[in-house]
Structures are given as structure tokens and as C-alpha cells.
Amino acid sequence: MIKLSKKKKFNQNLRNQKTIYTIQSAIKILKKMKSANFIESIDAAFHLNINPKKSEQNIRGSILLPHGTGKKIKIGVFTTGKNVTVAKESGADFVGMEDLASIIKKQTIKFDLIIASPETMEIVGKLGPILGPRGIMPNPKFGTVTENIQQAIQEARQGKINYRNDKNGIIHSNFGKINFSEIHLYENFLTLHNNIKQAKPRQLKGIFYKKISISTTMSPGIFIDYLNL
């Protein structure tokens, strides 16, 4: 049997594993927990009543959180012509073509987001086996394949996030940091929750959410009363 540290035991005892909490109460509990020696992210896990093996039931989307994520992200941009200057002036961390592809293949820099203009997709497409599993393959649905490079970078810096379900039908997404105010975390969560809810496939009957939980980077999860949001 694994022996829990005092910190983990304290955090475990702050919530009842079998209780379903309001989102406001859950956020309050997370903020009372003893945190790690860094500013932890707060994440949500949405367990969906979908069949991930059916492409028409897979959920993906993007949303600009009202208060951002608090996360500093590293952005790589594939583009050409005047957009190279635009990307650099807009705050991209690296702008290139074959040289950027080489960096990604060698994984010498870990990017959190890749943006591409349409004419570069022949090069970017070959990076699918690397970028796809990490969830950062440029996609028009996410606004990461675009002519408007400046807008894409600005939105990413402001807190735009992309989400998609995994093979188990679960969407994992960050919606802030533990040092955010309770109201900012609540508004971010509600924005994310409502956006995912609107993506429910039309052909899907019955419930959409099976359960939802939130947690910090190091804390145990807390189940949310999603029926009364």
C-alpha cells in the first residue's frame, strides 16, 4: 500500500471522494489545498457520452477564455513572405519553414502551439506523426491554419485554447492557475463548459456529460455537479 505524504493526506481529506460539489465549492476547496512549490494549473476533465471510434461523434473546438490561462506558451509559426515579419512582430518564438520543421523533428525546442499559413501545409503535413499526438497539429477548425497570422498569435497569447476528446472520450483542458481569483476561475470554467456543451453531436441521444472533475496539477480530482451549472 502506498503511503501518502502529509500534504497529499491533507489534500485528500479536504474533499469527500464520493461527493459531487458545485463548481464554486470545488474551486474553494482547491484553493485551500497545500500546493506544490510552483503555481499549479487548474484542469478540467470532461467525460463525454460519445463513441470516439465514430468520427462524427468526436469533439474538437477552440475557445478564448475571458481571463486567459496564465500559461506562458511557446509558439512556432510556419509562414512565408510578408507574414514572416508579421509573425515576428506579433511575438512568435520561432518563424520558419524547413528550419522550423527540423527543430520540431529533433525536438530541440518544445512548442505549445504551432500556427501555419495555408501555403506551408505541404511541409507541416509531414510533421503530423509528431504534432498530432501532442494535439498541436495546425487545423483550420482551431484557427491555427490561417492567413491572419497576427490574430492567431494574439488570441493564443490572450488565452485561446484548443480542445479535443481522447480515445476514451475525455476532454482534458486547462482553464487557469491556482493564483487566479475564484470568480475568474468560475467564469473561465463556465465559458469552457458551455462551449463544449454546444458541440454535442446532433445524432447523439441522451446525456452528453457522464461526469466532470477539476483538479490542480498535483491535487486529487473533485467531481462537479454539472446538471446545475
In short:
This protein is 31% helix and 22% strand. The chain is α/β, with parallel strands linked by helices and 229 residues long.
Characterise this structure:
This protein has 229 residues and is an alpha/beta fold. The protein folds into two domains: 122 residues, Ribosomal protein L1/L10, rRNA-binding domain (Ribulose 1,5 Bisphosphate Carboxylase/Oxygenase); 84 residues, Rossmann fold. It is 31% helix and 22% strand. It has eight helices and ten strands. The chain has a five-stranded mixed sheet with strand order 1-10-9-2-8. A three-stranded parallel sheet has the order 5-4-6, with helices on both faces. Strand 9 and strand 10 form a beta hairpin. Helix 2 packs across helix 8. The protein is globular, with a radius of gyration of 19 Å.
Keywords:
229 residues, alpha/beta, Ribulose 1,5 Bisphosphate Carboxylase/Oxygenase, 5-stranded mixed sheet, Rossmann fold
Helix-strand sequence: HEHEEEHEHEHHHEEHEE
Question: Roughly how many Å apart are the termini?
Answer: 37 Å
In CATH terms, the superfamily of the largest domain is Ribosomal protein L1/L10, rRNA-binding domain
* Overall pLDDT metric: 91
Rg over alpha carbons: 19 Å
Largest beta-sheet details: 5 strands, mixed
Family: Belongs to the universal ribosomal protein uL1 family.
Subunit structure: Part of the 50S ribosomal subunit.
Pfam family, one: Ribosomal_L1
GO cellular component, one term: cytosolic large ribosomal subunit
